[in-house]
Amino acid sequence: MSPIETVIRRVLLREGGVSDVGDGKGETRWGQTPGWLSAHKLPVPQSQEDAALNYAQWITQTGLFHAALVDDALTDALIDYAVHAGEARAIRSLQSAIGARPDGVIGPQTRLAIEHMDRSKAAQQVIADRLKHMGVLITADPEMYARFAKGWLARVAGQVTSLGGIRI
Questions:
Q1: Of 157, 166, 164, which is closest to residue 68 (Cα–Cα)?
Q2: Which residues contact 65 (CB under 8 A, 6 or more apart)?
């Protein structure tokens, strides 16, 4: 199984199935909202397998695959952050961690920086950035986001413990 297939499997496990969590984004199917599907021109998944195909296509469309060549803490943290907060935010986080211009797009400068980065250090910085982002969301609108804090933090805590090696 490729690193991308492995991380997609993890995302699908974390996201669960089909539900409306009440965040105003509508019915989510394995983490894929109607707005996300529309923005990326992807079909509504009818099964977990469909959702996996959508994620694979999205990882290719956004260039995230350039940083997801290894099954490690960085790949897991980056893709999971992109699923939760959008690929542009996650890519900017990676770019800041590796000294590339944080524009949210994986272009030539970012690809070059990816080739020379310390993956473990980048993973730590991406996870730290994600935690800060969660804090901003929760404190800016506690009525909306505080109810998600326990699950979000448990999810990221799992990534922190995986910095020495991936665990599901």
A1: 166
A2: 4, 59
Q: What percent of the chain has pLDDT over 70?
A: 96
pTM for the whole structure: 0.91
Q: What are the extents of the domains in the chain?
A: 3-164
Q: Tell me the pLDDT tens digit for each residue of 27-74.
A: 999 999 999 999 999 999 999 999 999 999 999 999 999 999 999 999
Q: What is the C-alpha separation between 51 and 17, in angstroms, rounded?
A: 10
Which CATH entry fits the domain spanning 3-164: 1.20.141.10, 3.40.50.300, 3.40.190.10, 1.10.10.10?
1.20.141.10
Tell me the pLDDT tens digit for each residue of 140-165. 999 999 999 999 999 999 888 877 65
**Cα-Cα-Cα-Cα dihedral sign, residues 51, 13, 89, 69:** negative
